[in-house]
Recover the amino acids of this structure.
DNA sequence: TCCCATATTTCTGTATACAGTATACTGAAC
DNA sequence: GTTCAGTATACTGTATACAGAAATATGGGA
């Protein structure tokens, strides 16, 4: 049994990010360390350490003397992160040994198709999406690269709540992911990269619309 | 007058990195928080916060329960970081508005040539190198990207000491940088990207040799 | 001499305490 | 009513204290 005593700081980091994903915090607002630490049932020390870690990942901004603040969200901010992730995932594909990529290509296609089978539960869709990308990059030998990608994806969790309502999300993802997988099966790396980039960049415009409509709904209340 | 009271944590971070660049620490070894904080004349709290920040940048690794450790250096580790930086700087060029890039292209060439004029003082060479890349990316509108690139470059400071002895470094850099600049002047973005990538990847093989010779010198003592 | 168990020390991870700065509030002058 | 000064409060940044886990040293038995 592999009980891995996780440090409080790490637990706090994941818990905070779960709450961020659930939309429990107002992005752009400042963070009260005392309140939050009390809410989590821990002291300020490990909380601050977790917040510093998250600020390095772009989830939080820190202003000297004024403490921490949830990094504001915007379509532009989302686009910036996505541009980086897309480029890095393309690099990861490029660095993956071609033969190993061929071996897993069919499985990647399966993962892409698995989408359509799911019910539209938001969490389940997220999980499938993560699985797909994880499998896609699983043969990349550059571990630092994989860590960097993961780090940037953390920042995107601030936008999770905007995804829940998207009806056509499942179909789109399945289509786009299948395109990537098929390109890999055809041993066409640059086509796979193009499809992968398209997959990411498309999400930007989707988010833009989702944010606009949610903002409208919010204003109506 | 713009006095900006810097937090202790930030000062520690820069001081620690300066010492890393100077080769004051043995990479791969564990970090004693008490000793280091006493040496810096601060308490453990801001030191730990700085170390956490640096661990996010890949300068330090942390093992639960065993504290911090200087991330080991190796040619492979260097190569991993360089692959990422090269890809991200290429992306930054791609995202820079073409017209703005044209405007600064001559200045970029000047910066490339400025190299040859310098004496071979290690610090001055580093500074020129940084200036060149900073100017090159100055028109990139994706701020997150620029921060990410900077973050990865911090990790490379662990290898600074291996650069000092390189005689031909100045000429090589001048040549490679000029190639980048000339491609930009010719409005050939992909050629510029190729030259930029080559510039970075070349540094990997150079580091490999430098590490081998320094290691040999160390073993001889 | 080597190995293992136990004791001791060291060090990390977390909580608490304190100081100084930023913010909010109150009240008086205009 | 508005503006400014002065005071009180809240909060961050840093230092210190404490508990528990690792690492190291000590000693006895094979």
């Amino acid at each position: 049994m592999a009980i891995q005593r996780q440090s409080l700081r790490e637990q706090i980091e994941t818990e905070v990010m779960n709450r961020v994903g659930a939309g429990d915090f107002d992005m752009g607002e400042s963070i009260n360390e005392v309140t939050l630490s009390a809410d989590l049932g821990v002291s300020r020390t490990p909380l601050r350490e977790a917040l510093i870690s998250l600020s390095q990942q772009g989830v939080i901004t820190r202003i000297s003397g004024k403490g921490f603040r949830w990094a504001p969200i915007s379509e532009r901010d989302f686009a910036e992160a996505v541009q980086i992730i897309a480029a890095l995932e393309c690099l990861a594909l490029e660095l993956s040994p071609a033969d190993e990529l061929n071996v897993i290509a069919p499985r990647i296609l399966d993962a892409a198709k698995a989408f359509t089978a799911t019910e539209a539960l938001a969490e389940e869709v997220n999980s499938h999406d993560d699985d797909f990308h994880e499998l896609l990059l699983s043969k990349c030998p550059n571990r630092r690269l994989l860590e960097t990608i993961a780090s940037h994806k953390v920042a995107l969790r601030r936008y999770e709540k905007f995804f829940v309502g998207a009806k056509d999300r499942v179909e789109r993802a399945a289509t786009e992911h299948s395109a990537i997988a098929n390109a890999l099966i055809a041993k066409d790396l640059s086509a796979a990269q193009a499809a992968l980039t398209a997959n990411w960049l498309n999400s930007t415009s989707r988010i833009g619309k989702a944010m606009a409509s949610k903002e409208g709904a919010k204003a109506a209340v």
